[in-house]
Amino acid sequence: MRKDGRLSTIRDCGSCLSRRGFLAGCVGCAGAGTSLGGVIFGSQNTPRRLRLHVLFALHAPVQETPDWPNVGFDFRPVMQRIQSELQRSCPQYDFMFSTADGPEAAAGIIEGSRPDSVDGYIVYQMNCWNRVVQSCAATGKPTLYLDFQYGGSGGFLVYTSSFLRTGSPNVGFVASSEFEDHVAAVQCFEVIQRGGSPAEFTAATERVRRERTPGPGNLAARSDEVAVLPPDEWRKRFREAKILAVGGEETPLGEAIEQELGIAVIPMGFEELNEAWKNADKDQAAEIADRWQEAASKVEGVSREELENSAAMYLAEKAVLEKHDANAITVNCLGGFYGGHIHAYPCLGFHELNNEGLVGGCECDVRSAATMVVFTTLTQGRPGYISDPVVDTSKRQIIYAHCVASNRPFGPAGAANEFEILTHSEDRQGAAVRSLFPAGYMLTTVELGPDRKQILLHQAKSVGNSLDDRACRTKLCAEPIGDIEKLFTEWDAWGWHRVTYFGDLKESVYALADTLGWRVVEEA
Fold it and tell me: Disulfide-capable partner of 128 in 150, 155, 348, 353 (CB 3.0 to 4.6 Å)?
C-alpha cells in the first residue's frame, strides 16, 4: 500500500508487486541465451538470469571539485547502499557495478564488459553533466536512467528531455527520492526476461512511474493579490531598463532581448566590479553586515570578515548600477570567483538588491536576468527567484534550488520570511542565503525566449522548504499545477534555470505574450 492509500502493484513487469514484496529470483544459469516462447533461455534450456550493468555517472568517488552535491561529498557509502539494496530487492538479476566520469570512460566500460552478454543498463546520474547514459542508450539495449537527487538532477533533466524529444525507444527513467520507486522500475526488466522489446520495457517503466506518482493534493492557494502594471506603462519601463552582464560577452540572445523588449544588455569585464569592491566604504559595509547578522535567523560557517566582504560586494554592485544607470546586474560568479577576478560571492548582494525591487541575477544568465526585469517590473517590485529545479515524482513536487534568494517574495513593502546565512553550498566558501519561503501560495515560473518569441510557463503551489544539505541552500518545494510528466520535456531546449514568482501571473503572462506577438509554452 502506498502512502497515498493506493496499491502499488505493477501489472506490466511480470508478477504483481507490493512495495515490500518483490519478485522471487529466476532459476537458471548465466551465459548466452536465446528467446523461445517469449522467455530468454540459457544453454541448458532453462530461464537464465538477466545480466544488468549499473553505471554511476560521477566525477570521482569522493568529490574534489565544487559542483552538486558539494565538494568533499563521499559517494562511496551511497553507491554501496544502492548496490546492496538492488541485490537484496532484485535477486533474480545478476548485477555488475562500475563508475564512469564521461562518454569515453563509459564506452570503454561497456566494451570491456562484453556488451553482447549484457541484457540492459542502469545509469545513476550522480553529478550533473557526466555524459554516461548516452553511451549506454547508444547500444540499443534497454536502459534505465535514475536521478541521484540534489547531485545529478541538472544533467538528468536536460538529458531526459533530450531522450523524450528524439523518441529514444530504449530509455526509461525515474526521478524519485524513494528508492522503492527505483526498484519498481528495475523490476520492469522482467519484460526483457519474457522476450519483450526495449520499447516495451520503456513503456513499462513509464506506467510504473505514473502509477507510483501520487495524485494531486489540495491546490487551493492562499489569497495573494498582485498589482500588475498596464501595458503602456511596462513598455516604457522596459525601454528604460539596463542589464549589466559582468563577465559576459555580446551574444545574439542579448541582441534579441534589446530588439524584442527594449532592455539594454551591457557586457562588462570583472575589473570594474572588483575595483568598486576594493573602494567600498568599510564602515558602511560593517553596518550592513551588522544588519544581516541581526536579521538572519542563523549564521553558520560564515565569519564576520566574510560577511563584511559580502557587504562590500553589495556596495560594489550598487555602485556600478548607479554609474551605468542600470536596474539589473548578473555576474559570472563562479568563473569570476574561481578565476580570481572577484574576491567575494555576489549572493548576499543579490539577496539585498532583489529585496529592494532591483535585479541581481546569478551566473551571468542574461535570459533569466531579462525575465526578472520584465516580471519584477510588471509586478511593481516582486523579486524573481532563479533556481536549478529538481523533480521528485514520489512527492509530486518540483523543488526550486539555488544559493541566492530574496526573503521578501511579495515585494519590498511586503512581508519578510525567515532566512539563514550559510556558505555557498557547492564549494562551502563565501556567504549565501537559505530563504525559508512561506507555504500555501500560488507560484508562477517563467523563462523568456526573445530569440524564439516564446514564454515558457508553469505554475505550482508552494508547500514548504527542503533542508537537505546537498546542493543549493534554498530549496523551495512546490506541487505543480497540471501534468507533472510534462515537466520532463523542455529542459534540453531551455536549459536548467527557471525564474519563480509568488503570485498567480498566468493571465499576465498571456497578456504579455499577446502584446508582444509571442507564444506561451506551458510545460505542465
Answer: 155
Strand order through the sheet with 429-435: 298-299, 419-424, 429-435
The amino acid occupying position 498 is R
3-state secondary structure of 1: coil
Number of H helices, E strands in the chain: 17, 21
Q: Which three cell numbers, joined as nine digits, stand for 288?
A: 550592513
Sequence ranges of the domains in the chain: 34-211, 231-522
Pick the range with the lowest mean pLDDT from 44-53, 141-150, 467-476: 44-53
Measured between alpha carbons, how far is residue 126 from residues 101, 335, 472 in Å? 10, 23, 15
8 Å CB contact between 419 and 334: no
Burial 259-280 (b: 16+ CB within 10 A, else e): ebbebbbbbbebebbbebbeeb
Distances (CA, A) of 30 to 92, 112, 193, 196: 11, 18, 13, 19
Cβ atoms of residues 508 and 416 within 8 Å = no
Compute the half-sphere exposure of residue 212: CA atoms within 13 Å on the CB side of its CA. 29
* Residue pLDDT, tens place only, 410-438: 999 999 999 999 999 999 999 999 999 99
For residues 239 and 216, is the Cβ–Cβ distance under 8 A?
no
Q: Grid coordinates representing 387?
A: 533556481
Q: Which helix (H) or strand (E) holds 121?
A: strand 120-125
| Residue 368, CB-side half-sphere exposure with 13 Å CA sphere | 24
Which cell goes with 202?
Answer: 520503456
Q: Using the predicted structure, report yes or no on whether residue 43 has a pLDDT greater than 60.
A: no
pLDDT band of 36, cuts 50, 70, 90:
very low
Range 34-211 has CATH code 3.30.70.100: no
CATH topology of domain 231-522: L-fucose Isomerase; Chain A, domain 3 (3.20.14)
Mean pLDDT for the chain overall: 91
C-alpha cell at 284: 558602511
pLDDT the model gives residue 46: 55
- Are residues 193 and 50 in contact, defined by beta-carbon separation less than 8 angstroms? yes
pLDDT attached to residue 23: 27
pTM: 0.91
Helices 366-378 and 231-240: crossing angle, nearest 10°? Answer: 140
Q: Which residues contact 5 (CB under 8 A, 6 or more apart)?
A: none
CB under 8 A, 24+ apart: contacts of 287-292:
288/314, 288/315, 288/352, 292/348, 292/421
Residue with cell 544539505: 469
Check residue 47 and report its DSSP letter.
B
Confidence of residue 114 (pLDDT cuts 50, 70, 90): confident
Cis amide bond preceding 69, omega within 30: yes
